[in-house]
Design brief:
CATH superfamily of the largest domain: Lactate dehydrogenase/glycoside hydrolase, family 4, C-terminal
Number of domains: 2
Order of helices and strands: EHEHHEEHEHEHEEEEEHHHEEEH
Oligomer: single chain
Structural class: alpha/beta
CATH architecture of the largest domain: Alpha-Beta Complex
Number of strands: 14
Number of helices: 10
CATH class of the largest domain: Alpha Beta
Strand order of the largest sheet: 3-2-1-4-5-6-12-13-14
Bound molecules: adenosine-5-diphosphoribose
Radius of gyration: 18 Å
Length: 306
């Protein structure tokens, strides 16, 4: 099996490292900047003796190395700068994502696409339309990362392990994302029963601002350790065909009363990509916030002028 990572920047290169260390597939790393994918791939290959992995890793500016990939992860784009909203990135990143999808798909017609480039919901919609692929094969990183952030904050607050938390963050991977305390559990107990409403609100707010908090510290560039770990988790579910449920940016066709839009929802991931979109029994308020979030994504999608 081969997995391609397009974009050898912070997220892409760290993802390539995480994937090659799992040793379940060959990795192709592609970037437009001359020397970067070659140099980073060469550096990673020289870790094989110490780490013991046996799969191949190639870095290139050409898509030739990607031919026959089963999974293509797109991290290519411009990272959010301090003070810049995700939506301001849209024009530049839309052109990049379209170009990458077209080039990569021509050499890997059976691939599953995982989109990471922001604004990810709109970029996933664009990738879906540009590729003409069925929706099970094109989805994006959102809830695994946002939920990972929520889990980290809950772990600090309640003095539990982050792995004791099953987070539930849905909607846009952006300012209108929705944290669901009734569907977020800590050792099986709903968060809504464990902390008061004020604390729930504070946890949700920090989660929504999770990416910006890191950008504020880094000054240049944005988060990449948790984003790459989140994508690796999604890739693993596809490679192993585990059917594990996690929240991803997915195209909805009537689920949750929403159509022709991409937002974060719980899905089961397996060898064919999205095996099933899971519909949680949201109450009226919970449903309304998801709809509001979907409308925010729809505005970004409209701005794409597809
Ligand atoms: N084809 C291939 N690679 C490209 C292209 C292209 N057309 N355009 C840009 N790139 C590459 C850049 O050269 C750079 O190496 O994409 C890489 C992006 O890396 P970084 O700038 O380090 O950004 P990163 O932090 O990795 O984030 C990538 O993921 O989380 C999102 O918002 C983030 O959209 C951003 C993406």
């Amino acid at each position: 099996m081969k997995i391609t990572v397009v974009g050898a920047g912070n997220v892409g290169a760290t993802l390539a490292q995480r994937l090659i260390e799992k040793d379940f597939a060959d990795i192709a790393l592609v970037d437009v900047v001359e020397g970067i994918p070659q140099g980073k791939a060469l550096d990673m290959r020289q870790s094989a003796n110490a780490l013991g992995f046996t799969h191949k890793l190639a870095g290139s500016n050409s898509y030739d190395v990607t031919a026959g990939s089963s999974i293509i992860v797109i991290t290519a784009g411009i990272a959010r700068k301090p003070g810049m909203t995700r939506d301001e990135l849209i024009g530049i990143n839309a052109r990049i994502v379209r170009e990458v999808v077209e080039k990569a798909l021509s050499l890997s017609p059976d691939a599953i696409f995982i989109i990471v480039t922001n604004p990810v919901d709109a970029m996933t919609y664009l990738a879906l339309k540009a590729s003409g692929l069925p929706r099970n094969r094109v989805f994006g990183l959102s809830g695994v990362l946002d939920g990972g952030r929520l889990a980290a904050f809950i772990a600090e607050e309640l003095n539990v392990n982050a792995s004791d938390v099953v987070p539930c963050v849905m909607g846009e991977h952006g300012g209108s994302m929705v944290v669901y305390p009734r569907f977020t559990t800590v050792n099986g107990k709903p968060l809504a029963d464990l902390v008061d409403e004020e604390k729930q609100k504070a946890l949700a707010e920090r989660t929504v601002n999770g990416g910006a908090e890191i950008v504020g510290y880094l000054k240049t560039g944005s988060a990449f350790y948790a984003p790459s770990a989140s994508v690796a988790h999604m890739v693993k579910a596809v490679v192993t065909g585990s059917g594990v449920q996690m929240n991803c940016a997915a195209y909805l066709d009537g689920e949750y009363g929403l159509s022709d839009v991409v937002v974060g929802v719980p899905v089961k991931l397996g060898r064919t990509g999205i095996q099933e979109i899971v519909e949680l029994p949201l109450n009226d308020d919970e449903s309304a916030t998801l709809k509001t979030s979907a409308e925010a994504v729809r505005k970004t999608i409209t701005a794409l002028n597809l």
